[in-house]
């Protein structure tokens, strides 16, 4: 009995086996962790897109109680006047009208190119940008593009909001952390094809119409 116990060999991993195992684990981690982080970031951006839509929609609905929005003058000259009717319904910590300090200056399109109408101080002209209490950056403008949203023919220019859902942090890219919302003559709606198409919300597109796709699909899947 004693001889059996003393003669039994104890099995263990060799140093070489341990190093090989650690190397395999390291390779797997190097491949999977960036993917997991990227997916987590995309999920956060998609949630931010939804949150910004709720914030801006609520503010615009509150502004409606002060009078008919369609009676407003939708011109560049009236941009600040219209903004003053809306901003009181937003939790703004900093406001920048024609100045820097509230917006990321290097916004890129989804395809990596230049983002149309984005400037260092916000969007369009005159520029109005702001910081919200929850950490988002925002921009407001009066603009003539429809962004693939159906709206009345007599509604020329309209109200436009832009959200940078993670504030000053990158990637500052349309369709990822930056989304556009427009007024369709009745409500604020996410920019994009309201018939269910993807518009320019694709890898080789500009990404200005991604808000509708993200809210419809509940995720960033491009």
3D architecture notes:
The protein is α+β, with helices and mostly antiparallel strands and 222 residues long. The protein has one domain. Helices cover 32% and strands 17% of the residues. It contains four helices and eight strands. The strands form two sheets. The protein has a six-stranded antiparallel β-sheet with strand order 1-4-5-6-7-8. A two-stranded antiparallel sheet has the order 2-3. The longest helix is centred in the N-terminal third of the chain and has 50 residues. It is elongated, with a radius of gyration of 25 Å. The termini are far apart. The mean pLDDT is 89.
Domains (count): 1
Widest sheet: strand order?
1-4-5-6-7-8
Average of the residue pLDDT scores: 89
Which class do the helix and strand fractions yield?
Answer: alpha+beta
Strand content: 15-25%
Largest sheet: 6 strands, antiparallel
The proportion of residues forming helix, as a percent range, comes to 25-40%
* Radius of gyration of CA atoms, rounded to a whole number: 25 Å
Poorly predicted residue ranges:
none
Shape: elongated
SSE ordering? HHHEEEEEEEEH
Total beta strands: 8
Number of H- or I-type helical stretches: 4
Distance between the termini: 68 Å
What brief labels describe this structure?
222 residues; alpha+beta; 6-stranded antiparallel β-sheet; two-stranded antiparallel sheet; 4 helices
């Amino acid at each position: 009995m004693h001889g059996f116990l003393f003669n039994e060999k104890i099995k263990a991993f060799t140093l070489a086996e341990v190093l090989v195992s650690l190397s395999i684990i390291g390779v797997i981690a190097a491949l999977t962790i960036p993917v997991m982080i990227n997916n987590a970031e995309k999920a956060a951006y998609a949630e931010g897109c939804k949150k910004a839509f709720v914030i801006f929609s609520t503010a615009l609905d509150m502004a409606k109680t002060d009078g008919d929005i369609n009676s407003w003058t939708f011109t560049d000259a009236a941009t600040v006047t219209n903004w003053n009717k809306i901003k009181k319904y937003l939790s703004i910590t900093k406001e920048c009208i024609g100045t820097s300090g509230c917006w990321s200056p290097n916004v890129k399109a989804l395809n990596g190119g230049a983002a149309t109408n984005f400037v260092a101080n916000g969007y369009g002209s005159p520029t109005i940008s702001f910081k919200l209490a929850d950490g988002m950056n925002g921009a407001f403008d009066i603009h003539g593009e429809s962004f693939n949203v159906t709206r009345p023919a007599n509604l020329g220019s309209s109200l436009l909001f832009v959200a940078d859902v993670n504030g000053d942090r990158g990637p500052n890219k349309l369709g990822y952390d930056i989304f556009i919302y427009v007024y369709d003559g009745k409500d604020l709606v996410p920019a994009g094809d309201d018939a269910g198409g993807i518009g320019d919300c694709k890898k080789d597109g500009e990404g200005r119409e991604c808000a509708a796709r993200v809210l419809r699909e509940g995720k960033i899947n491009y």
